[in-house]
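Limitations
The structure tokens in this dataset are predictions for the assembled complex, not deposited experimental models. Users should treat interface geometry with appropriate caution, especially where small molecules or nucleic acid strands are included. An illustrative entry is reproduced here so readers can see what is and is not provided.
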Amino acid sequence: MTTVRYCVNGKLVSGIAPTNRGFAYGDGVFRTMRLLNGELQDWPLHYQTLVADCSKIQIVCPSAELLMQEFKYFLASASEEDTQFSIIKIIITRGEGARGYAPPAVSEPTRVLIQSPLPDYPPEMYTHGVALYTCQTRLAHQPLLAGIKHLNRLENVLARAELKDPRFFDGLLRDYDDNVIEAVSGNLFIRKDGMVRTPPLDSCGVAGVMRQKILDWYKTQGQPVVIAPLSMGDLLQADAMIIVNSVYGVLQVSHIDDQPITTNHWAKELRPQLHYVTH
Amino acid sequence: MTTVRYCVNGKLVSGIAPTNRGFAYGDGVFRTMRLLNGELQDWPLHYQTLVADCSKIQIVCPSAELLMQEFKYFLASASEEDTQFSIIKIIITRGEGARGYAPPAVSEPTRVLIQSPLPDYPPEMYTHGVALYTCQTRLAHQPLLAGIKHLNRLENVLARAELKDPRFFDGLLRDYDDNVIEAVSGNLFIRKDGMVRTPPLDSCGVAGVMRQKILDWYKTQGQPVVIAPLSMGDLLQADAMIIVNSVYGVLQVSHIDDQPITTNHWAKELRPQLHYVTH
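Predicted assembly:
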């Protein structure tokens, strides 16, 4: 796949109106997932988070039936190769609006589907882990928007722009109280003395679907993940650390800046449990 | 004017690509201004703030020449009535991008011009003032983005959605430390014992062009505005209060929730000093 394709409100059109509230105010939410052999991986969980996120900003999420109908129509025009392996991003916005912040009394949410090529990840990423850079950009505390994968992502953009050195795969994001919250493009977990820990996301950060899958899996194992604040010290002294999202799956962290982190088989053992196919 | 018109990158097209970073991440800035007899009111100051805002998020603002050229082309297709009185919103985004937060190494910023009708404000608004509602939605502290009129405006959307009672013209926004910062759609000033005060915008809020004009005007009068934190108590005990933006100009505040605020001729006296034409 060389080009990016999109579908807006069930049509293969080339654009959205500049008065769409997604463009005007970032007034919407999104999720990114893998398309694998014609199936959206973890679609039920992705749809559930879209509904929950929309609800938190008072958007009525389109029905799963409508989204699936539009997705199937979109997929019908995809090449066989792209149907087997690619990335699908779903954006839901509050829809069209007049000038001004007031949400329109009646609005039909806009549905956008974007199909992109699967990134060409080097296989060593899955075997040797990845290095993270500690970003200077900090996350603000905004409990009203915390956890939601909304379209107001300037903090992530500024943080990602800090990564100039190609040795680093992603950045580490902290809040202004020096708590580590997440990676720029995913969530993080550490293991210490047999216990798995991940930061709370009630003040900032995005609660990813892969994070939820991992929380759910450990729960079924009778070993629930401890959700508690993490400091940089906790990360550096961890027995192991992983970053996770719905595109790259689970990756072991090998370095934070220039400091090596113990790497073991945590990510490798976890992937099959999550039914995550790397390639 | 009954419809909203737009111009994208100098063309009268109907849409922007869903991969535009303005849509994907709110990765851009905007300003809204009055079009009066073919002239953009306070354009030099608006352009200066566009350049400064772009710079803070590492976007290279298009030249004033290019924006003016595209504006003139856009205006050529407007009706005479719309050329005399309307609203122009200028949006600058980082441009097109691939999937992922990383800003593209090379990108041409997208320029969007939107023309909308001037709101049909009741004349009493200018003579009797307006009532404000104290929003429950609070502004997060994010010094990296404070003051910038960027496209990440979900806080304003949530705050504006609180205003259900038509008695209220706008909402009052506070931060999580109970400081009053701004109105949802404008900045605010109070007068107390002959001194004019306005809140600092170094942690949150948008620094509007009308606010800047007022700061500049008081400076030329040898009476500089005091920029210092304001509490709800300061507002309720003020001798007078105004809210300001580039669309409605300067409005006296007559009530905060159910509490009356002294109204005098402050707004009426200030308008001609700012060369602001109400209708």
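Some entries come with short summary sentences. For this one: The two ends of chain A are 15 Å apart (CA to CA).
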